[in-house]
Sequence to fold (493 residues):
Amino acid sequence: MALRVYNTLSGEKEVFIPLIPGRAGMYVCGVTVYDYCHIGHARANVVFDVIYRYLGYAGYDVTYVRNYTDIDDKIINRANREGVDYRTISDRYIQAFDEDMERLGLAKPTVEPKATDHIGGIIAIIEALIAKGHAYESEGDVYYAVETFPDYLKLSKRNLDEMKAGARVEVGDKKRHPMDFALWKDSKPGEPWWQSPWGKGRPGWHIECSAMSMEFLGMTFDFHGGGKDLIFPHHENEIAQSEAANGCQFVRYWLHNGFVNINSEKMSKSLGNFFTIRQVLEKFDPETLRFFILSAHYRSPIDFSDQNLDEAQAGLERIYSFLAALDDILLENPAPPELSAGESPAGAGQELQDKLENLIPRFCEAMDDDFNTAQALGVLFDVVRAGNRFLAEMGDPDPAGLSLIARTRDRFAEVGQVLGLFGSRPAAWLEGIKSSKADQINISPAEIEGLIVERAEARKAKNFKRSDEIRDLLLEKGVQLLDSAQGTTWKIR
Fold:
């Protein structure tokens, strides 16, 4: 199956045909670095990280560019409030962004340019737009004239006349049309500035992405991504200025991830439901947040809530518990034999083998359908269900069973590399989750283990009253004991 992606520009799924055979160029709008990142940033960056990984897995040589907007009104305002240089603010939050993305397991893009390093390229594009009649200087500012570009709003499917009717130009306004947007801004007293043909100033927001993407990917490239909130005006304006300047198509496939809602409401600081990545990771494991994001199709909205994060964690625990069981068996049998020709396990082993043989084809089929990570995870759960049935009936593993277990573990490592999941040692990850849960109910794992030992001694002495008291005490605290032939384990309910 060929890779098909939903192109916002056409409103349809299209077969991906790279501009250059065997290669893929992708630009994703990065963050404006004036504050800590929120979970909307987490979603966008995890989504495009997986797209980047999958394109590489599918055999493409990928150039992935993700920028930093390091000059902006918000950065300047924060710098003024703190009485520091704008670079102090931008450097601080670039570092914070990098730390957050590392915790979420993101692969580093090929290039991470900063807007302020591309002032020369920005000025060159503006000069070309003025020369071609698409931009004009007005009292030290330079504006893009939207009426000169007939395809303006082709991405967002809006109507310029209707938008003009809903806007107005104030007396003395520098713009000729209310929808004209700034390419260059005259520097106000105390603001950072760069010298230009129009005087001291700084770039507008939209122009920087055109300059940086063209620098590293050329005038036309394959993928441009970002959140749906960027379709208008940011991406719309990028198209207008880039295609007017270059006279050719800017981007071939536009990809946009859906919004994050908080308890079914739009995330907003004014509503008090705004969460930074750091706040979320105080309560939830980073891989749990990543798993939650990938559990929905990237274009669909997702509803962030503690309950939904708990459900995501439970799903990830199921997979890690399965992998831990495989690791325990492989630890006892470090060199699983290869299967002989025609040799295969019976019963549930045959079911697992069938699921395993189809895992990679089905996984790729899901990812080739517009990067459907939700469906891809469903494929993995099918294997986990079959694998748990196999382990339950296996008894002492025979050569065929051991070979199947080893191949299952390898396949999960393979798809985990694409999804950015399952990179931890399963037993350690599970212990970490148990400890975190125990901390939340104010009881330490050591206390729990101590009570389990005391309970075992009470049962051995036939003091079943005390044994039951310990079980009930832990249950009141939310700790469930799980007795088996191998001993007693526990989990947080």
About this structure: The chain has a mean pLDDT of 93. The longest helix spans residues 306-332. The chain has three domains: 4-282, 305-425, 441-492. Residues 153 and 236 are 6 Å apart (CA to CA).
